[in-house]
Amino acid sequence: MTTFEASGAGSTGLLDRLNGARHRLSLNLFMVIVLAHWAEHLTQAFQIWVLNMPLKESRGVLGYFYPWLVKSEWLHYGYALVMLIGLFLLRKGFVGRAKAWWTVALAIQFWHHIEHLLLFIQAQSGTMFFGQKVPTSILQLAFPRVELHLFYNTIVFIPMVVAMYLHLRPNQDEFHGAECSCAKEPALSGTSRG
Fold it and tell me: What pLDDT, in 10s, does the model give residues 87-101?
């Protein structure tokens, strides 16, 4: 029995609903957020490397209209937190190989979140770490920020995509172990698909 069930919040808890009957919807909504964030990063990359805009002016779409969002770190930290929470909340709906890949994405995003938390703390407090003049994360000491965060988002996104692919195409054991109805039952081994 979940905490939500014990508290009388209904017959199934929030996590059970997100990872059961509403798993596909939850994943789709989560992916809209993920893809919107990717669009921001790709827009910024296009501004920097194709349009040759100065780095301070290359703020993506939201940063163009709301530059304070980029400078304050609210946008970056907020997204890192939403990603971490989404990966955590939707993990229960995965089984087998898909769950392993989703867990890899969650672990990487946990570290990515720590890096953004450090940036956020510095921006909000006005106290810079590591002897730097601007908010700086740990790996940013060795790699430029734009490239580093493109890399972080890529290495979180790839295992997410693999997990979702495997989730929608489970083997027999994974299909029967799933609590959601995201996937169709796989064909039995040795039988032809008609």
Answer: 999 999 999 999 999
